[in-house]
Design brief:
With about 190 residues, this protein is mainly alpha-helical. The chain is about 55% helix and about 5% strand.
Length: about 190
């Protein structure tokens, strides 16, 4: 679930996820629709920035990006691992084997590349911040907040109680009824 976590300035605007890829699925940086949070070639900047903080293995890069995006975006392995390979091929990261895992370290060349492209990185994060503000503002902010609470009380508690808890069927029925009411509200209210 999306929520405030360590972030890169996105802060209060992350509190609930929408869709399988979080808030960003279907919402573009300039009001258009899209299915990805980053434009082509932008992930490398974000991965390098993460590696500048500390060396990480591939899965830790995925989890680190998810944490930095407050749970609202989780990059796929099919995005992260090819990006790491590209960065290694370009000399921006080096790999050190540790406990059977490849740990990626930013190189001095990678740090220079990041510094040389600071404006591009700033633009990426400015765009993401604005997208979140646009999406989470106004009445949509109320839905965002309510959905965050719903996800927390539903999934958080279900996870702690386990798959055999007697309340699960009742909670599922409540959710079905709520979905029916929401569908009706969209059809009847203008």
């Amino acid at each position: 679930m999306c929520g405030q976590r360590k972030d890169w300035g996105f802060g209060e605007f992350f509190s609930a996820g929408f869709g399988p890829k979080g808030w960003a699925a279907g919402f573009g940086p300039r009001g258009g629709r899209r299915n990805q949070i980053f434009e082509s070639g932008e992930v490398k900047f974000v991965v390098l920035r993460l590696l500048k903080e500390k060396p990480r293995h591939g899965y830790d890069v995925i989890k680190g990006l998810e944490e930095r995006m407050a749970g609202c975006y989780t990059p796929s392995a099919g995005t992260v691992y090819p990006t790491l390979q590209l960065l290694e091929d370009q000399g921006y990261v080096r790999v050190v084997e540790a406990e059977g895992k490849k740990v990626y370290h930013i190189t001095p060349e990678g740090e220079r590349f990041l510094e040389e492209n600071r404006d591009a990185l700033d633009e990426i994060f400015d765009r993401v911040r604005q997208t979140v503000r646009d999406f989470a503002g106004g009445d949509m902010g109320e839905i965002h907040s309510a959905f965050g609470r719903l996800a927390k009380v539903t999934f958080g508690r279900a996870w702690r109680r386990g798959p055999e808890h007697p309340s699960l069927k009742h909670v599922a029925e409540i959710l079905r009824k709520a979905a029916d009411e929401i569908e009706l509200a969209w059809e009847t209210k203008k």
